[in-house]
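ok so i was messing around last nite and threw this chain in just to see what happens. nothing serious, just curious
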Amino acid sequence: MRTSMGTLSSSFTSVRSASSWFEVCAAFSTFTMLLRTAINDLIPHQIRSLIASKLKAFFSDRQRNNQVSLHINQSWDGQTNKLFQAAQEYLPATISHSFKSLKVGKIPKQKNVLIAVDGTQEVVDQFQDIKLTWKLVKETYTKHSDRDHYPKSSLSLEKHSFKLSFDEKHRDVVMSKYISHVLSTYEAMQAAQKTIKIHSIGGHCWRTSDLTHPASFDTLALDPEQKQAIIGDLDRFLWRKELYKKVGKPWKRGYLLYGPPGTGKSSLIAAMANHLKFDVYDLELSSVYSNSELLRVLSETSNRSIIVIEDIDCNKEVHVRSDSYSDYDRNHVKVKTRRFTLSGLLNYMDGLWSSGGEERIIIFTTNHRERIDPALLRPGRMDMHIHLPFLKGKAFRILASTYLGIEGHHPRFEQIDDLLEKIEVTPAVVAEQLMRNEDPEDALAELVKFLKQMDNGSVGSQSPETSPIRVVRKPKWLKRFV
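result:
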């Protein structure tokens, strides 16, 4: 009986306790509502807003007292700040999914639509689990004229900068890795979007235009093994900067392209430029009148460029090593004492002048390799000799694919291969024949007919050196053994 009475008493106490808590909560809620009403009625809106902003700023400062900010100005000591340019390109392209407000536009001669930060919001990036906040800051200032005749004129200008904020504990990672990541990403983007330029010498200065040649290694009519060897050599050159520095050699590489006219030397140069994204400098040696001018002209070329010297065998100056010529040399070689010498050219390639610039490709072309001074041919000057031969079967397959869209085997290929083994014809001549018919079957039939005419001796009136077509005949003594 006592146990039952104790249990009943305990239950009654619990109910009383819960009821008390409900009464307290109700009273507090009523008090809060009355206080809010009193504040709204007695304190003006402006004062309430001021108090709220101060409280918000106080707690925000308490939370952000460990934040570090880097300010990246648009210019640095009067020069363009590359890091600002990098951020300007990096942010829209890399983390554009977090933007809610962007500037979009298209300007002449620009292939892609341009996207930029408009400065109305903060943008968050993530790097190695680090949160980084970017903000474009605009500052307007007035520039007053310093001219006497316009004393009251002024111009309103804007300064731009990026503010990069992050937690202080990540300072070392941001400074050593993240900024380098932004710069390297920007450089890769620039290389991919780069409009390749071709520069030609004229009037003692370089004249520039866009290189629009569409040649690529996919469309070049070269033997596939030879093509892969060239691509591999170019790619090795790009990533061997530290090796060149280690062994004490200038970061340059020389190529000699030789072969009959029409075998694709110019197309190969364009393909190399498009593959590397390098500008091209077409150096006409006849426009250079001294070693000092040669140095000046070459010093104006940029890094990551291809310097092309065509028909090197046709230039008399590169066959003479100094200015000390005999009267016989002056009368027969017709060398002007003011012109540059072979020694001047060699000094730029691997002598003391070669330190001016890096990541350069130097390409020489010739139709007659045997006429070039041996001093130019050795490794270190012309490191890789590329022979561009007359057209043969494997290279013809590429032409058939490019011009006619024929992939794989075709019944006429074997007949064409046999004819190409007997006839020396350039890719340019065969390409012209393929373009005369849009239907692939008709084009191949006409090509077979054309090659048979060449095999029968119907060669044009061109001289053997300049003719793009030459028939190879077996000598009579060899026929006895065949």
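not much to say yet. The first helix runs from residue 2 to 42.
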